[in-house]
Amino acid sequence: MDSNKKLDNEELIKQIREGNERALNPVYEANRKPFIRWAIWNYKCDDYDAADVYQKAFAIFYFNIKDGKLVTLTSKVETYLYAIGKRLFLEKQRDKHQQNLNLEDVPEVSQLDISYFDKESQTQRQLVVEGLLKKVGEACSRVLKMYYYHKFSMEAIAEEMDYKNDFVAKKKKYECLQKLKMMATGLSPDDLLST
Question: Domain 118-189 classified CATH 1.10.10?
């Protein structure tokens, strides 16, 4: 069974590296709900925060493959995503306490090669994200920049964007992340509805 799982992982990595990004959609969908349940249970967050961390973890997984940093996956994709998610939640918790995160201080979750945070490739990703933010629409671009770049709270975003409350701001941020995901993977909204 493990050799079949490894073969499946190898084929997935090969397809993504060759540009078949549609291979990601079933993997994304299969792992999304279990990840969100895991995050809510382990980190006592709401479903929007859990979905937000899942988006980031999946993007890291994708870019590690595209950048050639993830060549072989010896564990399940789910395990790899959880390891990334754990690091992202540690980062969130430290940010809440106004401390700077030094990734060298974060204990290794496993022997997985989670090298998303390398500065060299981070610059390239920032350029890709900036390009996507220009295409995603003005409202989405503003919401995402306020939240991720300027660290606005949901309440502050709601006030700035003249939304009814912070729940509406969270929903808008989530929808904008979904839009970015579709753009980054080359999927249209119709593609997602047909799966």
Answer: yes
